[in-house]
Records
---
Amino acid sequence: MPSGDRQNSRWRDALGSLSARLLVAFLVPTLLFVAVAGTAVYQLARSILEEELGTSLSAIAAATATQVHGERLLTIEPGDDVTGTRTWRNFVRMFESVAEASGVRRVYAVDTQGRVRVDVGGTLPVGTEMPELARDRLELTRVFSGERAASQVLFTGSDGRLYKTGYAPIEYEGSVVGAVGVEGSAAFFGSLQQLSRTFVTMGAVALGALAFIAVVTARGLARPLRRLMVSALRIGRGDLTTPVPPEPTLEIGVLARELEDMRGALESRDRQLKMMLAGVAHEVRNPIGGIALFSGILKEDLQAGAHDEAGAHVERIQREVAYLQRIVEDFLAFAREQPLARAPVEAPSLLSIACELMAAEASARDVAVDIDAAPAVLEADGSLLTAALVNLVKNAVQASPQGGRVRVSGTAHGGQYTIQVRDAGPGVPAPEHERIFEPFFTTREKGTGLGLPLARKIALAHGGMLSLTSAPGDTRFTLTLPLGAAPSGVTPPR
C-alpha cells in the first residue's frame, strides 16, 4: 500500500476511534447511572413501602388485639367452628368487621402454641397449627414477648398477589396468651413495578437520545478534523500554497490557525530557500565562468611561453575565487541559525567598532564617516550587531559619492535605542525600498545581495526593526533596538 494511502487509513482509523470513544463516553456513564440509580431508587422505595405496610398491618393487629378477651379466646375448642358456638361467632363477627373496615384479606387469632382459634378469610379449622407461622418465627418470638411486629418477607397468596402479615400480642392478666395476625395485600408493588418498567423505558429512550447526540457530536467534531486532516496531508505532500480554511469551533479553530501559520511559515521558508538557491546559482555562475575563461587563456599563454601575461590571468582568477568565497561566507552567515549570546553592550562603542572596520574602505573611496552616539547600554549579541552595522555602513559608503560623508548617530528615547546611518548618495527608488531587504537582490555588479537581509534578520532577532527612507541626496537606514534586558537564547528568524 502506498505511504499516502497508509497515512489516510491511519487518519480514518483515528477519526473512527474518536467517534467510538465519544459514543462510549456518552453511553457508558449514563447506562451505569440508570442501572445503579434505578436499582437503588427501586429498592429504597420498595423498602420504605414494605416497612410502611408492616407498620400499618401491625397497628391494625394491635387495635384488634385490644378488643379480644384473652380468657374467652382460650375457651374456643376444636369443633366450635363446626357447631358455631356463640363465643366463636362473636369473634368471627368482630374479625369480619375489622377486615371490612381496614380492607385486609385475613384476620386470625392463634394461641401461644400457634394453633388457630379464629380464622376469618382463611380456611383453617379451630385447633389446627398454622404452617404460615413457620416463616415468621423470629417475629412471633417478639410478639409472644409482648411486642408488635410485622413479617420481614412478602409472600404470594393463592391469587398470585403479594401479601404481608402484621402481628400483635393478646394479653390476659399481664400475660401473653395468643396473637392476632392481619394479612394485607401489597398491591402497591404492582404500581411500583409499573413505575420501574416506566423508568427502564425512559432510560432506554434517554440512552437512545444520548447515542444520537453522541453520533451527531462525533460527526460535528470529525468533519472539521477531517478538513484539518486533508489540509495536513496536502501540506505533507508539498502543497504549501493552498490556505488552511478557518474553523468556527474554538479549540479546532485554534488548531486550524496554528496549522495555517505553520503552512505560511513553511511556504515562506520554501520560497526563501528557492530564492536563495536561485541567487547562489546566479552569483556563482559568473565567477565560475570567469575562472573557466581565464584559466583557459592562462593555459594557452603558458603553452605559448607568454609568461608575462600569466601573472595577470592568475590575479583575475584569484579575484573570482575570492568573490566566490565571499558569496559562500555571506550565504552561510545568512542561512545559519545562531542563538543570541546576550550581554551588556555600550552603544557608542558598538558604533565606533563598526565604523573602524569600514575605515579603510571609506578612506579608499574618499568618504568621511562621522559618529554621534548618545550613551546607552544594550542587552544584545555584540558580534552580530557589529556585523549588521558594518553592512549598513558599508552600503552607505559604497552609495556615497567621492568626497561624500556618512553620518552614524544613536539616540535613546522611550525605552528604545535608534541608530541611523545616512548617506548623500543617489538614493533607492521607491519600488525597491522593500525589495532591497530580499536575499540576493542587489543593484551592484559584485554585490551578493545578502548584507541588508542579514542586517534586518539580526535586528528582528533582537526584538528590533530595520527600515529605510530614501530620497536623492538623503538615504537613511534606521535600526531600532530595545533598551534593557531581553529574554536570552532567542534564535534569529529565518
Note: The two ends are 37 Å apart (CA to CA).
---
Amino acid sequence: MYNKEIVYQELSNVMKKENIKRDEPLRDHLYTRLGGNADFFLTPTTYEEVQEIVKLANKSDVPFTLLGNGSNLIVKDGGIRGIVLHLKNFSDISATDQQIVAQSGAAIIDVSRRALDETLSGLEFACGIPGTVGGALFMNAGAYGGEIKDVLDYCYVVDREGNLVKRTALELELDYRHSNISEKGDIVLEATFSLKPGDHKDIKAVMDDLTFKRESKQPLEYPSCGSVFKRPPGYFAGKLIQDSELQGTNFGGAEVSTKHAGFIVNKDNASASDYIALIEHVQKTVKEKFDVELEREVRIIGEDPQ
C-alpha cells in the first residue's frame, strides 16, 4: 500500500495544490451522479503535467484511473483507490480548413456544434452524445448511423510510460463501441477530425432532427449512464427489455426508464449498488424470457463499499 502523504507531496511538486483534491466524492463529477470517493482527484492544466503524473504513478506504484464525465460509466460506492485523473481543463476546440481539433475534455456535442459553425459535415450524429471527446474515442461512440471512426484522423495520447504519442485512427482499432485505448493504457489528450464542406442549413436540419429524436425518446430529465446494453445480434436491447415488462422496475433509487427501456435512470438518489443490481436483474430476466444475453455497454469500475 502506498503512503498517501508522500504521494501528496510528490503530486504537489508536479502540479498546483488547488488542482489536487483528496477523498473527493466522484458522484459530484459524473453524469450518472453515482460513486464513492477518490483518494486523489487530479485536474491537470497542461499535457506535461499529465505526463509527469503518469510517471509518478508508475514510480510510486499508485493505482491510476482516467475519468471522463461518466456518461457511460458506473463507479461503485466504495470509490476508487489511488489517483483519479480528470481532464475537464482540456476543453479547447479549434478549426483549420476541413478539420476540427478538440481536446479530450471537450464535450463531443460542442465539437459537433463547432463543425456546424464552420459549415463542416460529418459530426452531425454526435450532436446528442453526452460524453467527452476522450470518452467518445475510448468507446468509438456512435448514434444514428454515424460513429467516431468515420471522422477521426488521428489523436495525441500519453502512453502508460508517460510518453506523448501520435496515434492514427487505424492504430486505435476502432470497432463497435470499442477501441484499444484501454488495453494500451493510453490517455487521450486531443483528437483531430477530418470533415467535409457542407451546407449550413442542411447540417443544421439534420442536427435539429436528431436532437428532437433524442429529446423525445430519451429520459434526459434524470441522470443516467445512457444506453446500458449493446445491441445483441438480431435484436434491439430496448425492445427485449420492454417485452420483458421491465419498464418502471426499480431497485432503490434506480429505475428502468418508462420512456426508453434501454436506459436505467437515477430517479431518486440511487446508489451504484442499486444500479448494478438492477442491471443484473434485467440481464437475468431477458435471458430467462428470450434466451438472449445482454452485454453491458456501460463500464463498471471501482470498489465495493466496506
Note: The chain has three domains: 4-86, 93-202, 219-301.
---
Amino acid sequence: MQLNKLLSPVEISEIIGCGDKEITGVTADSRQVRDGYMFVAVPGVSVDGHAYIHKAQESGASVVVCERLPEQISSSVTYVVVPSSAIALGYIASEWWGNPSRELHLVGVTGTNGKTTTATLIYEMARLLGYKAGLLSTVCNYVESTPYHTDHTTPDPLTINEMLRKMADAGCDYCAMEVSSHAAHQHRIAGLHFAGGIFTNLTRDHLDYHKTVEAYLNAKKSFFDNLPATAFALTNADDKVGEVMLQNTEASRHTYSLRSEADFTGRIVEQRLDGTLLSLNGVEVETMFTGKFNAYNLTAVYGAGILLGWERDSVLRAISALVPVAGRFQAFHSPKGVTAIVDYAHTPDAVVNVLQAIREVIGQNGEVITVVGAGGNRDKGKRPIMAREAAARSQRVILTSDNPRFEEPEDILADMEEGLDDEARTRTLHITDRRQAIRTAVALARPGTVILIAGKGHEDYQEVKGVKHHFDDREEVKSAFSENN
C-alpha cells in the first residue's frame, strides 16, 4: 500500500524523508520487521518501542512512525512524527486492512463485569436471527462459527482489524466486541467505527494498572466520548456512574435498568439455579440464566437488539434460546444432589453478585461452600475484600491458588486472610493446591449444598512462574463428582 494512503487518516506533526513509498507490511513489534515494512514505535507500560527503532531499521524498515526522532537518522528511512503513536497505529491498522469496521455493525461492550456475557450473547442472538456475525472476546474470537484463540480481552489494533477483515470477507453483518479499560486507555480501538457502545457497571478492578478508580472510570468513559453521532450509547442507569458515561458522547443516549424507569427495563419474576423468568419492557420471557447480574446482561442485550433495528418479538424469542457463556455461572450437578457453579468472578463485586444469585434461589439457610483465590501480580487491595465478601455469604470458604503468576501462592492467600475476622477464620480452610481445594469442597458438601468455584471460569490453565499449566475448574469438578459417587 502507498505510504500516503496509509497515512491519510493520521494526524502528523512532521515527515522527514520520502513520502512516496510502497509499504509491504505494518508492525509495532521490531522482531516482525521485514524489508519495506512500516514500524510504529509505541510507548508501552513496560517497553517503549522507541528503544527498538534502530533494530527495526537494521531489519529493513523503510518507514518509522514515532513520537520523537531517534538520535541517528537514516537517509533510507522515512520518519513520520505524530502526537501519539498508539492512536496513529489504530488508524494505520484500519487503513491497512481496508477499514473493515465500516463494513460491519460493530458493537462495543465495556464495564468491570458482564462484558464477556453481554458481547457473546449479542453475537449469539444475531446468529439466531439469521445474520452472520463475529465476536471479539476474552474467551475466544469467532468469525461466524470458526474459533480463533485469544490471549487478551482486546487485542492490538492490527489483530483487531485483521479479525474484522476476516468477518467482513466472510459476509458478517455484525460484530460484538469487548472493550477493556486497558484497550481504551492504550488507544487499541482508535480508528474503529462503532455502531453502538454498552456500559455494564463499574467496580474496583485493574487498579494495579490505572492506580485510581477515577482513572479507571475515565478510561471506560473515553470509549463513549469517541463514539460517532451515528452510533447508540446504552448505559446501566442503576450504576452510580452510568450517566457519567454519556456526558460527552455524540451518540444517541439510551438507558437500561432493573430498578427504575429506563428505555429498557428488566424485572425478575421468578428464578431458579437453572434459569429465570424475566420481564423485558413488560413482556415475560423464560431464560436459561440465573442471578440479578445476568438479568442486567440480558436487559442490555435486549436493548442492543432493539437499537440495532431488530424486531422486538424476534429478539425476545432469541433471548429465550440463548445459553450461558462457558465459565459464567456454569452449573454442574452430582448424583448426590450437590450443585457446583463455576464462574469467572475475580473481583469483589463479581463474587458478591454470584453469591447473591445463589442465595436468591436457595435462601439464606442453604449451605454454600466457596472456593476462591486471587491472581498474582495484580491489584493486591482487592484480595482481603474478596475473602471477606465470600465469607459473609458462605457457610464455608476454601482459600486457594488462582493464577499466582510470579508471586508465591502462600503470600496471596495471606493477603486474602487479612480480610477475615476471627469468626470467619473458623469457617475458612487454607488449601493452596486448587485441585485439592475443589475435591475438599466436594467431599464436605451434602445433598442440596451449592459449591461456588470462583475466579477462573472458562480458563483451562493455571499460570505459575510464567508457565501456563493445563487446569480447568470444570474438568476438576466433574472428576471430583465422579469420585464421590
Note: The chain has a mean pLDDT of 94.
